[in-house]
Amino acid sequence: MKSNSCFSVLPTPRFGLTVKYSGYLGNWNKLFCSNGSSKYPRLMKLGKDITLWGLEIGLLSMTKGEAALFVLTPEYAYGQRGCPPSIPPNTTVLFKVEVLDFIDSEECDAFFELTYEQRDRLPLEKVLKVAATEREFGNYFFYKQCFKIAKDRYKRALSILGHSSSSKAEQSQINASKLLLFLNLSLTYLKLERADQALKYGELALEMDQGNAKALFRCGQACLYMREYSKSRDFLIRAQCIQPFNRDINNELKKLA
């Protein structure tokens, strides 16, 4: 979905979004592009992956879960030259779109364009927000079962949290964000069948919160995978003491037995 190279495109905010789309010529009778067959459409960015002016304007007016039909005249689509051989010159095109998911990546993109010195001068609130957005991206890819990309996003979020804190309250906020990422990374490494790394991040989570049942459970799962049965039992029993009716923990103990 690229515009003609000689056709000017207005600058747009940087958003990451997943869209189902189909593009047609004429009266909905000639399909020229579509991602309808994809089970998990890839995350795209306005202004980078989607640069058709009319489509950008239309998508900016939409919300998550919304579907729409857009009729784009040549000046909002492929211009006077078209896009041979699929799009003839001066062609009006029709797009059927549905916004499946939406993440605002503008602040993240801006953050990573700064030098390390500039990043360190940012207020903690902004740093935490950028880290949370990167974690959102990681969650998106995790649920799409793109575990390697999810892992890289979680690690990228973790790299942001090296911000120097000036108080215990600030350090507590940073640690809370790190804890979520350690838990995410532990689970993601389990999905990647890297139990050693899953255990590492589970134990990092426990350093911050010794009574975290989820971290104990992840460590127990990792040890079970590595056939360290005694160690696995210790972790799982501790998790069960905190959450005695947790079905996942109890099932893991049955598996261990």
Number of domains: 2
Biggest sheet details: 5 strands, antiparallel
Gyration radius from CA atoms, angstroms: 24 Å
Question: What is the residue-averaged pLDDT?
Answer: 88
What fraction, in percent, of the residue positions are helical? 40-55%
The end-to-end span amounts to 55 Å
Describe the structure.
The chain has 257 residues and is an alpha+beta fold. The model is unreliable at 1-13 (pLDDT under 50). It has 10 helices and 5 strands. Helix 9 runs antiparallel to helix 10 (247-256). Strands 1, 2, 3, 4 and 5 form a 5-stranded antiparallel sheet that branches.
Secondary structure elements and their pairing?
Elements: E1 15-25, E2 30-34, E3 44-45, H1 53-60, E4 67-72, E5 93-104, H2 106-112, H3 116-120, H4 124-143, H5 147-160, H6 168-191, H7 195-208, H8 213-225, H9 229-242, H10 247-256
Antiparallel strand pairs: 1-2, 1-3, 1-5, 4-5
Helix pairs in contact: 4-5, 4-6, 5-6, 6-7, 6-8, 7-8, 8-9, 9-10
